[in-house]
Amino acid sequence: MSSAADALRAACPSLRLQEPLARHTSLAIGGPADYYADVQTPSELIAIHKVLQEYPIPVFFLGAGSNLLISDKGIRGLVIHLQGEFRKIEINGPLVTVGAGAWMPTLVKQCAEKGLCGIEALIGVPGTIGGGLVMNAGTRDGVLGDVVTSVTVLDAQSAVRRMDRAKLRFDYRRSNLINEWILSAELSLKADERSNIISRVDSYLQYRSSTQPLATSNCGSVFKNPEGKAAAQLLEQAGLKGTVIGGARISERHANFIINEKQASAIDVRALMKRAQEKVFEKFGVQLEPEVKLVGEW
Fold first, then answer.
1. CA separation, residue 41 to residues 17, 45, 46, 48, 87 (Å)
2. For 252, what's the count of Cα atoms within 13 Å in the CB-facing half-sphere?
3. For 127, which of 108, 136, 139, 194 is 20 to 30 Å away at the CA?
4. pLDDT tens-digit profile of 227-274?
5. Is 43 considered catalytic here?
6. Whole-model pTM?
């Protein structure tokens, strides 16, 4: 363990041991990571990648900490948080190169200022580009995968490799990038009047503010929408709004949100998810599939 830690610290000086992950998630829940690294540059990431060829330690990429339920026992292995150069956004005409650590709402705003449209629906998605690519983040009005032309990753030999659109697969809340070390992506957007784009962005933000419990500790939508149905509507019709287990509560504003109301544990949230699934299945015969990703030791 100590030799692995020494090698990782040599690759990335920011390495910390036993870092509490509750500090880094939107639910404010999560036990410690064995190793935690704030990675600033591609060279640091490549160095870490090479270390892990010698020390086979599990790796988890932590973006904005949304859409996650991390176990109270934490995560065994290395948690990587991409920052610094990975947050760069470069705009060249309709083509946008964006780092895996960039925040999606920031990307939307910068593109809107430049008169580029096609990603306005991402304004309310509180995640990073890397996580958004893996889960094809978005809303019913558009997803990230719609505008991606290529993704740059590290291959098994720690070399930088470009995956063109033909090699990418985007589906509902998933993609074929789940096991990739993502550095950046290239997007192809369209030109429009800046005022029109900003108007649409404002409209999305107003809708989100009026329908979601934004001023709370939550992980975003908990369950995927079953085909032809809305998970929130099923949960509401099953009488689940306001249901409490421990410190966790199903939001009265939006039934597909679970709130960390009183220092909830991951076990509280998971138990509330299970109860919600059971009640919806009992009433409608529909098995809700989690959208939130359960991570760590359970």
1. 20, 7, 9, 11, 10
2. 2
3. 194
4. 999 999 999 999 999 999 999 999 999 999 999 999 999 999 999 999
5. no
6. 0.93
